[in-house]
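Anyone able to model this chain together with flavin mononucleotide?
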Amino acid sequence: MRINIAYFTSTGNTLWLCLKAKETMEKQGHTVKLYEIIKDGEAFTKDECDLTGFFYPVWGSNPPDPMKEYRENMPPGNGKKVFLVGDCCALNGDTGYYFKQILDKKGYDVFFTDHLIMPTNFNLPYEPENYWKRVPLETERDKILSDAEKKLQEICASILKGERKFDGKGLIDRMAGALQRKTYWIADGYKSHFSVSKERCVKCGLCVRMCPSGNISETEDGDKVFGDKCMLCVKCYNLCPVNAVLICEVSIDDKKYRRYKGPAKDIKPVEYR
Ligand SMILES: Cc1cc2nc3c(=O)[nH]c(=O)nc-3n(C[C@H](O)[C@H](O)[C@H](O)COP(=O)(O)O)c2cc1C
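re: yes, here you go
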């Protein structure tokens, strides 16, 4: 089978899952092609295949903005088979099922939705202590990844068998999802609170190069300016090599507001814009 998978990743978790899924499926004789939705969305739409998948991090019971936009503009499905795999740190809600309902209306046959737990890349300043999962230390991270890898194997097996599964369909998940989508404006408020610590910044320009929405520019002196196109992927905040990117001044305390450096050394999320 030829399987085409579109993904979005900011700190590499979703990419890590995609690469593992590709390896697993190809070992069983299938051909898998990965498309980063921001760069390769057009090719993903055009390229022929037998099965289409989407891998995405969960952002408030939705996929990230570029995938939402892609979803809005998808052509009629004509019964094309689709699977959806989300990754989150705690609360998935009905992300996959909600996504499925939108694609079903366009005529796709979404036969499988599921999610995995991955390390969080998202500790917002001023969140109440213990409200959300903290960015894990490396040992904790590796345990989360090894559990995720096991679940991913099961997910790949189910997809290849064409099993029908609809994670997120239950009433509680749907209520949690609806509530998260309604209150997502709270997270949106953080978009205007990004800045760069002049004391820490080494002017490497990495944040400018890796921002997926081209939202960060540089003055002649190398100071950073944030525009109004932030999608809150927190890639700059997490992956700045000297933790100079701040969300609110308090995040200068990078022991309390630990940055997430990605799932593995062989994944270089900074290269994925
Ligand atoms: C803007 C934003 C919103 C998020 N919302 C949720 C959420 O609603 N539920 C959850 O469990 N994790 C949430 N997370 C955590 C990520 O989904 C999770 O860490 C994911 O594995 C990151 O994948 P990536 O490294 O491929 O970007 C959120 C992360 C971000 C950046």
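The first strand starts at residue 2 and ends at 7.
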